[in-house]
Amino acid sequence: MSYLLVMPLLVWYGRDRAWLLPAFFAGALATSLCLLSHLFWPTEMARPVVAAGWIAWLRSIDSPLAASPSGHVALPIAITVVLATLRVRAAAWFAAWSVVLMVTVLTTGQHFVADVAWGAAVGLLAAAVTALAMRWRVDLRTLAMILLEWLCVVVTLRVAFALDDWRLYLVAAVIISTRQHALFILYHDAAHYHLTRHRRVNDFLINVAIGVPGVVPVEFYRPLHLAHHRHVGSALDPERQFLYRDQRWQFRPLGTWPLVRQLIGDLLLLNTLRTMRAYRQAGGAAVRPTVPILAACVVWTVIAGWLIYLCSAHTLTMLAALWFGPLFTVSVLLQKVRSFSEHSGGPGVTPGWSDWTYSWCVGWLGRAFIWPYHINLHLQHHRNPNTAWYDLPSQVRSSDHVMSSRGLVGLLWLGRRRVSDTRREPQRN
After folding, report:
1. DSSP for 344-382?
2. What's the Cα-to-Cα distance from 326 to each of 143, 172, 267, 323, rounded to whole Å?
3. What pTM value is reported for the model?
4. I want to staple 287 with a disulfide (CB 3.0 to 4.6 A). Which of 1, 30, 220, 413 is the partner?
5. 154-171: per-residue pLDDT in tens?
Protein backbone atom coordinates (compact mmCIF):
# COMPACT_ATOMS: atom_id res chain seq x y z
CA MET A 1 0.00 0.00 0.00
CA SER A 2 2.99 2.31 0.38
CA TYR A 3 3.05 2.35 -3.44
CA LEU A 4 0.35 5.03 -3.21
CA LEU A 5 2.83 7.31 -1.45
CA VAL A 6 5.69 7.03 -3.96
CA MET A 7 4.74 9.99 -6.16
CA PRO A 8 3.39 12.27 -3.37
CA LEU A 9 6.59 11.81 -1.33
CA LEU A 10 8.71 12.37 -4.43
CA VAL A 11 6.93 15.68 -5.04
CA TRP A 12 7.14 16.70 -1.40
CA TYR A 13 10.83 15.89 -1.06
CA GLY A 14 11.78 17.25 -4.48
CA ARG A 15 9.83 20.50 -4.35
CA ASP A 16 11.90 23.42 -5.66
CA ARG A 17 14.62 21.00 -6.79
CA ALA A 18 15.71 20.70 -10.41
CA TRP A 19 15.71 16.88 -10.33
CA LEU A 20 11.99 16.63 -9.54
CA LEU A 21 10.86 17.09 -13.15
CA PRO A 22 12.93 14.26 -14.70
CA ALA A 23 12.20 11.91 -11.77
CA PHE A 24 8.46 12.62 -11.95
CA PHE A 25 8.52 12.27 -15.75
CA ALA A 26 10.19 8.86 -15.53
CA GLY A 27 7.70 7.65 -12.91
CA ALA A 28 4.71 8.91 -14.89
CA LEU A 29 6.06 7.34 -18.07
CA ALA A 30 6.53 3.97 -16.35
CA THR A 31 2.99 4.12 -14.95
CA SER A 32 1.57 5.03 -18.37
CA LEU A 33 3.38 2.15 -20.06
CA CYS A 34 1.96 -0.25 -17.47
CA LEU A 35 -1.51 1.19 -18.01
CA LEU A 36 -1.30 0.70 -21.77
CA SER A 37 -0.07 -2.86 -21.30
CA HIS A 38 -2.96 -3.61 -18.94
CA LEU A 39 -5.48 -2.10 -21.35
CA PHE A 40 -4.36 -4.03 -24.42
CA TRP A 41 -2.86 -7.18 -22.91
CA PRO A 42 -4.78 -7.75 -19.67
CA THR A 43 -3.47 -10.41 -17.29
CA GLU A 44 -5.07 -11.91 -14.20
CA MET A 45 -3.66 -13.76 -11.19
CA ALA A 46 -5.20 -17.13 -10.35
CA ARG A 47 -4.87 -17.00 -6.57
CA PRO A 48 -5.93 -19.51 -3.90
CA VAL A 49 -8.89 -18.44 -1.80
CA VAL A 50 -8.03 -17.03 1.64
CA ALA A 51 -10.98 -17.11 4.04
CA ALA A 52 -9.85 -14.60 6.65
CA GLY A 53 -7.00 -12.39 7.85
CA TRP A 54 -5.32 -9.32 6.48
CA ILE A 55 -4.30 -11.10 3.25
CA ALA A 56 -7.98 -11.76 2.53
CA TRP A 57 -8.73 -8.09 3.19
CA LEU A 58 -5.87 -6.97 0.95
CA ARG A 59 -7.07 -9.17 -1.89
CA SER A 60 -10.59 -7.84 -1.49
CA ILE A 61 -9.40 -4.31 -2.33
CA ASP A 62 -6.72 -5.23 -4.89
CA SER A 63 -8.05 -6.83 -8.06
CA PRO A 64 -6.11 -9.78 -9.50
CA LEU A 65 -6.27 -7.98 -12.87
CA ALA A 66 -3.32 -5.94 -14.23
CA ALA A 67 -0.84 -8.54 -13.00
CA SER A 68 1.93 -8.08 -15.55
CA PRO A 69 3.96 -5.94 -15.68
CA SER A 70 3.94 -4.97 -12.02
CA GLY A 71 3.34 -1.25 -11.64
CA HIS A 72 4.39 -1.53 -7.99
CA VAL A 73 7.88 -2.29 -9.27
CA ALA A 74 8.02 -0.20 -12.47
CA LEU A 75 7.30 3.13 -10.75
CA PRO A 76 9.97 3.12 -8.00
CA ILE A 77 12.56 1.52 -10.29
CA ALA A 78 12.14 4.31 -12.87
CA ILE A 79 12.50 6.98 -10.19
CA THR A 80 15.48 5.23 -8.58
CA VAL A 81 17.46 4.96 -11.81
CA VAL A 82 16.87 8.60 -12.80
CA LEU A 83 17.82 9.86 -9.34
CA ALA A 84 20.93 7.68 -9.39
CA THR A 85 21.83 9.05 -12.83
CA LEU A 86 21.52 12.57 -11.44
CA ARG A 87 23.49 11.57 -8.31
CA VAL A 88 20.70 12.50 -5.91
CA ARG A 89 21.02 11.02 -2.41
CA ALA A 90 17.34 10.12 -2.34
CA ALA A 91 18.09 7.41 -4.93
CA ALA A 92 19.22 5.12 -2.09
CA TRP A 93 15.88 5.48 -0.31
CA PHE A 94 13.90 4.79 -3.47
CA ALA A 95 16.15 1.81 -4.24
CA ALA A 96 15.39 0.34 -0.82
CA TRP A 97 11.71 1.09 -1.33
CA SER A 98 11.83 -0.73 -4.69
CA VAL A 99 13.30 -3.84 -3.03
CA VAL A 100 10.67 -3.78 -0.28
CA LEU A 101 7.86 -3.52 -2.85
CA MET A 102 9.35 -6.38 -4.91
CA VAL A 103 9.44 -8.64 -1.85
CA THR A 104 5.97 -7.55 -0.74
CA VAL A 105 4.15 -8.25 -4.02
CA LEU A 106 5.70 -11.72 -4.12
CA THR A 107 5.11 -12.71 -0.49
CA THR A 108 1.49 -11.50 -0.55
CA GLY A 109 0.81 -13.45 -3.72
CA GLN A 110 -0.04 -10.37 -5.77
CA HIS A 111 2.48 -11.12 -8.54
CA PHE A 112 4.75 -13.81 -9.94
CA VAL A 113 8.49 -13.37 -10.37
CA ALA A 114 7.98 -12.82 -14.13
CA ASP A 115 5.59 -9.93 -13.38
CA VAL A 116 8.21 -8.32 -11.17
CA ALA A 117 10.85 -8.80 -13.87
CA TRP A 118 8.62 -7.19 -16.50
CA GLY A 119 7.86 -4.33 -14.12
CA ALA A 120 11.56 -3.75 -13.57
CA ALA A 121 12.11 -3.80 -17.36
CA VAL A 122 9.40 -1.17 -17.86
CA GLY A 123 10.93 0.98 -15.12
CA LEU A 124 14.37 0.72 -16.71
CA LEU A 125 12.92 1.59 -20.13
CA ALA A 126 11.18 4.68 -18.74
CA ALA A 127 14.40 5.75 -17.00
CA ALA A 128 16.43 5.20 -20.19
CA VAL A 129 14.01 7.31 -22.24
CA THR A 130 14.19 10.06 -19.61
CA ALA A 131 18.00 9.96 -19.53
CA LEU A 132 18.16 10.14 -23.33
CA ALA A 133 15.75 13.08 -23.37
CA MET A 134 17.88 14.89 -20.77
CA ARG A 135 21.00 14.24 -22.83
CA TRP A 136 19.33 15.80 -25.88
CA ARG A 137 18.02 18.64 -23.66
CA VAL A 138 14.44 17.88 -24.57
CA ASP A 139 11.90 19.99 -22.72
CA LEU A 140 10.34 17.33 -20.51
CA ARG A 141 7.24 19.40 -19.79
CA THR A 142 6.39 19.60 -23.48
CA LEU A 143 7.33 15.96 -24.09
CA ALA A 144 5.17 14.92 -21.14
CA MET A 145 2.18 16.79 -22.59
CA ILE A 146 2.72 15.16 -25.98
CA LEU A 147 2.73 11.72 -24.36
CA LEU A 148 -0.31 12.63 -22.25
CA GLU A 149 -2.27 13.69 -25.33
CA TRP A 150 -1.43 10.42 -27.06
CA LEU A 151 -2.39 8.50 -23.93
CA CYS A 152 -5.80 10.21 -24.05
CA VAL A 153 -6.18 9.24 -27.72
CA VAL A 154 -5.20 5.62 -27.15
CA VAL A 155 -7.39 5.19 -24.06
CA THR A 156 -10.32 6.79 -25.92
CA LEU A 157 -9.87 4.35 -28.80
CA ARG A 158 -9.61 1.40 -26.43
CA VAL A 159 -12.78 2.32 -24.57
CA ALA A 160 -14.68 2.99 -27.81
CA PHE A 161 -13.70 -0.39 -29.26
CA ALA A 162 -14.50 -2.18 -26.01
CA LEU A 163 -18.03 -0.71 -25.78
CA ASP A 164 -18.64 -0.84 -29.55
CA ASP A 165 -21.53 1.62 -29.74
CA TRP A 166 -21.91 4.05 -32.68
CA ARG A 167 -22.85 6.89 -30.31
CA LEU A 168 -19.65 6.36 -28.33
CA TYR A 169 -17.69 6.31 -31.58
CA LEU A 170 -19.03 9.83 -32.28
CA VAL A 171 -18.01 10.96 -28.79
CA ALA A 172 -14.59 9.38 -29.32
CA ALA A 173 -14.20 11.25 -32.61
CA VAL A 174 -14.87 14.58 -30.87
CA ILE A 175 -12.42 13.78 -28.05
CA ILE A 176 -9.75 12.71 -30.52
CA SER A 177 -10.20 15.88 -32.60
CA THR A 178 -9.60 18.05 -29.51
CA ARG A 179 -6.45 16.08 -28.66
CA GLN A 180 -5.22 16.40 -32.25
CA HIS A 181 -5.76 20.14 -31.97
CA ALA A 182 -3.81 20.21 -28.69
CA LEU A 183 -0.96 18.26 -30.32
CA PHE A 184 -0.85 20.84 -33.10
CA ILE A 185 -0.48 23.59 -30.49
CA LEU A 186 2.59 21.80 -29.10
CA TYR A 187 3.71 21.30 -32.72
CA HIS A 188 3.46 25.09 -33.15
CA ASP A 189 5.78 25.47 -30.15
CA ALA A 190 8.23 22.99 -31.67
CA ALA A 191 8.24 25.07 -34.88
CA HIS A 192 10.13 27.61 -32.73
CA TYR A 193 12.50 24.87 -31.49
CA HIS A 194 11.09 24.93 -27.97
CA LEU A 195 10.99 21.13 -27.76
CA THR A 196 14.80 21.00 -27.95
CA ARG A 197 17.50 23.20 -29.44
CA HIS A 198 18.95 20.15 -31.18
CA ARG A 199 17.15 20.94 -34.40
CA ARG A 200 17.10 17.50 -36.01
CA VAL A 201 15.98 15.89 -32.76
CA ASN A 202 13.32 18.59 -32.33
CA ASP A 203 11.93 18.01 -35.83
CA PHE A 204 12.10 14.22 -35.55
CA LEU A 205 10.20 14.16 -32.26
CA ILE A 206 7.45 16.54 -33.35
CA ASN A 207 7.09 14.81 -36.72
CA VAL A 208 6.62 11.52 -34.89
CA ALA A 209 4.20 13.15 -32.44
CA ILE A 210 1.89 14.78 -35.01
CA GLY A 211 3.72 16.02 -38.12
CA VAL A 212 3.62 12.68 -39.97
CA PRO A 213 0.33 11.26 -38.60
CA GLY A 214 -1.17 14.74 -39.05
CA VAL A 215 0.17 14.85 -42.66
CA VAL A 216 1.81 18.26 -42.09
CA PRO A 217 5.58 17.87 -41.52
CA VAL A 218 6.99 20.69 -39.44
CA GLU A 219 9.51 21.46 -42.23
CA PHE A 220 6.54 22.57 -44.38
CA TYR A 221 4.84 24.60 -41.67
CA ARG A 222 7.85 26.41 -40.17
CA PRO A 223 8.76 28.74 -43.10
CA LEU A 224 5.13 29.84 -43.43
CA HIS A 225 4.75 30.36 -39.71
CA LEU A 226 7.94 32.37 -39.34
CA ALA A 227 6.87 34.52 -42.31
CA HIS A 228 3.57 35.04 -40.51
CA HIS A 229 5.48 36.36 -37.48
CA ARG A 230 7.51 38.75 -39.64
CA HIS A 231 4.57 40.11 -41.64
CA VAL A 232 1.55 39.69 -39.37
CA GLY A 233 -1.38 41.83 -40.54
CA SER A 234 0.34 42.90 -43.77
CA ALA A 235 -0.25 41.80 -47.36
CA LEU A 236 2.78 39.49 -47.06
CA ASP A 237 1.26 37.55 -44.15
CA PRO A 238 0.84 33.91 -45.33
CA GLU A 239 -2.49 33.77 -43.52
CA ARG A 240 -3.76 36.57 -45.76
CA GLN A 241 -2.06 35.13 -48.84
CA PHE A 242 -3.10 31.50 -48.45
CA LEU A 243 -5.11 30.57 -45.34
CA TYR A 244 -8.15 32.70 -46.21
CA ARG A 245 -7.79 32.95 -49.98
CA ASP A 246 -11.14 32.73 -51.84
CA GLN A 247 -13.01 32.44 -48.55
CA ARG A 248 -15.73 34.67 -47.13
CA TRP A 249 -14.02 35.46 -43.85
CA GLN A 250 -11.49 38.26 -44.36
CA PHE A 251 -10.67 39.33 -40.78
CA ARG A 252 -14.10 40.97 -40.39
CA PRO A 253 -17.40 39.72 -38.94
CA LEU A 254 -19.80 37.98 -41.33
CA GLY A 255 -23.54 37.76 -41.65
CA THR A 256 -25.27 34.60 -40.55
CA TRP A 257 -25.36 32.69 -43.85
CA PRO A 258 -21.82 33.65 -45.01
CA LEU A 259 -20.47 32.63 -41.57
CA VAL A 260 -22.30 29.30 -41.75
CA ARG A 261 -20.85 28.67 -45.21
CA GLN A 262 -17.38 29.59 -43.96
CA LEU A 263 -17.56 27.15 -41.03
CA ILE A 264 -19.07 24.36 -43.14
CA GLY A 265 -16.29 24.87 -45.69
CA ASP A 266 -13.72 24.47 -42.92
CA LEU A 267 -15.48 21.43 -41.47
CA LEU A 268 -15.71 19.65 -44.83
CA LEU A 269 -12.12 20.43 -45.91
CA LEU A 270 -13.26 22.66 -48.81
CA ASN A 271 -11.43 25.72 -47.49
CA THR A 272 -8.29 23.67 -46.86
CA LEU A 273 -8.32 22.70 -50.55
CA ARG A 274 -8.66 26.39 -51.45
CA THR A 275 -5.65 27.16 -49.24
CA MET A 276 -3.59 24.42 -50.93
CA ARG A 277 -4.57 25.68 -54.37
CA ALA A 278 -3.57 29.24 -53.45
CA TYR A 279 -0.22 27.97 -52.17
CA ARG A 280 0.46 26.06 -55.40
CA GLN A 281 -0.58 29.00 -57.58
CA ALA A 282 1.88 31.20 -55.68
CA GLY A 283 4.67 28.75 -56.53
CA GLY A 284 4.99 27.28 -53.04
CA ALA A 285 7.80 24.76 -52.72
CA ALA A 286 7.13 21.12 -51.92
CA VAL A 287 8.59 19.62 -48.76
CA ARG A 288 11.98 18.06 -49.36
CA PRO A 289 12.58 14.73 -47.62
CA THR A 290 14.86 15.48 -44.68
CA VAL A 291 16.40 13.09 -42.17
CA PRO A 292 13.81 13.96 -39.46
CA ILE A 293 10.91 13.39 -41.88
CA LEU A 294 12.29 10.10 -43.17
CA ALA A 295 13.08 8.86 -39.66
CA ALA A 296 9.57 9.77 -38.47
CA CYS A 297 8.08 7.98 -41.49
CA VAL A 298 10.08 4.87 -40.60
CA VAL A 299 8.70 4.97 -37.04
CA TRP A 300 5.12 5.24 -38.28
CA THR A 301 5.70 2.55 -40.89
CA VAL A 302 6.75 0.19 -38.10
CA ILE A 303 3.71 1.18 -36.03
CA ALA A 304 1.39 0.69 -39.03
CA GLY A 305 2.93 -2.71 -39.79
CA TRP A 306 2.50 -3.77 -36.17
CA LEU A 307 -1.17 -2.70 -36.22
CA ILE A 308 -1.77 -4.55 -39.52
CA TYR A 309 -0.29 -7.69 -37.95
CA LEU A 310 -2.38 -7.43 -34.77
CA CYS A 311 -5.74 -6.09 -35.99
CA SER A 312 -8.52 -7.33 -38.22
CA ALA A 313 -9.53 -5.45 -41.37
CA HIS A 314 -12.60 -4.08 -39.57
CA THR A 315 -10.53 -2.78 -36.65
CA LEU A 316 -8.01 -1.18 -38.99
CA THR A 317 -10.82 0.54 -40.91
CA MET A 318 -12.31 1.90 -37.70
CA LEU A 319 -8.88 3.05 -36.48
CA ALA A 320 -8.30 4.94 -39.72
CA ALA A 321 -11.79 6.46 -39.58
CA LEU A 322 -11.41 7.55 -35.94
CA TRP A 323 -8.06 9.19 -36.63
CA PHE A 324 -8.34 10.68 -40.11
CA GLY A 325 -12.05 11.49 -39.90
CA PRO A 326 -11.62 13.96 -37.00
CA LEU A 327 -8.25 15.10 -38.37
CA PHE A 328 -9.76 16.32 -41.64
CA THR A 329 -13.03 17.69 -40.22
CA VAL A 330 -13.53 18.77 -36.60
CA SER A 331 -9.82 19.26 -35.92
CA VAL A 332 -9.52 21.54 -38.97
CA LEU A 333 -12.55 23.53 -37.81
CA LEU A 334 -11.11 23.96 -34.30
CA GLN A 335 -7.80 25.16 -35.70
CA LYS A 336 -9.56 27.60 -38.01
CA VAL A 337 -11.72 29.06 -35.22
CA ARG A 338 -8.57 29.47 -33.13
CA SER A 339 -6.92 31.24 -36.07
CA PHE A 340 -9.95 33.56 -36.29
CA SER A 341 -9.53 34.38 -32.61
CA GLU A 342 -5.80 35.12 -32.89
CA HIS A 343 -5.89 37.70 -35.70
CA SER A 344 -9.50 38.79 -36.21
CA GLY A 345 -10.47 42.37 -36.88
CA GLY A 346 -7.59 44.58 -35.88
CA PRO A 347 -7.09 48.35 -35.99
CA GLY A 348 -10.19 50.11 -37.25
CA VAL A 349 -12.32 46.97 -36.99
CA THR A 350 -12.34 45.96 -33.34
CA PRO A 351 -13.34 48.87 -31.06
CA GLY A 352 -10.43 50.06 -28.94
CA TRP A 353 -7.99 47.58 -30.46
CA SER A 354 -4.68 48.80 -31.90
CA ASP A 355 -2.97 45.48 -32.68
CA TRP A 356 -3.50 42.61 -35.12
CA THR A 357 -3.00 39.98 -32.45
CA TYR A 358 -5.28 39.16 -29.53
CA SER A 359 -5.12 37.60 -26.09
CA TRP A 360 -8.10 35.98 -24.44
CA CYS A 361 -9.26 35.23 -20.91
CA VAL A 362 -10.70 31.72 -21.21
CA GLY A 363 -12.25 29.04 -19.04
CA TRP A 364 -11.86 25.28 -18.96
CA LEU A 365 -14.20 24.73 -21.92
CA GLY A 366 -12.24 27.15 -24.09
CA ARG A 367 -8.98 25.49 -23.09
CA ALA A 368 -10.35 22.04 -23.88
CA PHE A 369 -11.55 22.91 -27.39
CA ILE A 370 -9.90 26.05 -28.82
CA TRP A 371 -7.09 27.43 -26.63
CA PRO A 372 -5.02 24.63 -25.04
CA TYR A 373 -1.53 25.22 -23.69
CA HIS A 374 -1.89 29.02 -23.27
CA ILE A 375 -2.30 29.64 -26.99
CA ASN A 376 -4.97 32.15 -25.90
CA LEU A 377 -2.04 34.43 -24.93
CA HIS A 378 -1.22 34.95 -28.59
CA LEU A 379 -0.30 38.61 -28.26
CA GLN A 380 2.41 37.63 -25.77
CA HIS A 381 3.60 34.85 -28.07
CA HIS A 382 4.01 37.25 -30.99
CA ARG A 383 5.76 39.76 -28.77
CA ASN A 384 8.30 37.15 -27.64
CA PRO A 385 8.29 34.00 -29.80
CA ASN A 386 11.25 32.63 -27.82
CA THR A 387 8.97 31.99 -24.83
CA ALA A 388 7.75 28.41 -24.39
CA TRP A 389 4.03 27.78 -23.94
CA TYR A 390 4.21 27.24 -20.17
CA ASP A 391 5.98 30.60 -19.59
CA LEU A 392 3.52 32.71 -21.58
CA PRO A 393 1.46 33.74 -18.50
CA SER A 394 4.59 35.40 -17.10
CA GLN A 395 4.74 37.60 -20.22
CA VAL A 396 1.37 39.25 -19.62
CA ARG A 397 1.75 42.93 -18.71
CA SER A 398 -0.73 44.89 -16.64
CA SER A 399 -1.31 47.17 -19.64
CA ASP A 400 -2.11 44.30 -22.03
CA HIS A 401 -5.61 43.95 -23.41
CA VAL A 402 -7.03 40.55 -22.48
CA MET A 403 -10.39 39.94 -24.11
CA SER A 404 -13.23 37.90 -22.68
CA SER A 405 -13.81 34.67 -24.60
CA ARG A 406 -17.47 35.70 -24.86
CA GLY A 407 -16.35 38.35 -27.35
CA LEU A 408 -15.23 35.73 -29.89
CA VAL A 409 -18.71 35.43 -31.38
CA GLY A 410 -18.79 39.19 -31.92
CA LEU A 411 -15.59 39.03 -33.97
CA LEU A 412 -17.07 36.42 -36.28
CA TRP A 413 -20.77 37.21 -36.50
CA LEU A 414 -22.38 40.53 -37.40
CA GLY A 415 -25.44 39.50 -35.44
CA ARG A 416 -23.43 39.91 -32.24
CA ARG A 417 -21.05 42.71 -33.01
CA ARG A 418 -20.38 43.79 -29.43
CA VAL A 419 -16.86 42.84 -28.34
CA SER A 420 -15.96 42.80 -24.65
CA ASP A 421 -12.60 43.94 -23.40
CA THR A 422 -11.15 43.28 -20.00
CA ARG A 423 -7.85 43.47 -18.18
CA ARG A 424 -6.41 40.66 -16.13
CA GLU A 425 -3.40 40.26 -13.94
CA PRO A 426 -0.76 37.79 -15.24
CA GLN A 427 -1.39 35.24 -12.50
CA ARG A 428 -5.08 34.97 -13.43
CA ASN A 429 -4.33 33.77 -16.96
Report:
1. -S-TTTSTT--SS--BEE--HHHHHHT-GGGTTBHHHHH
2. 23, 9, 10, 6
3. 0.91
4. 220
5. 999 999 999 999 999 999
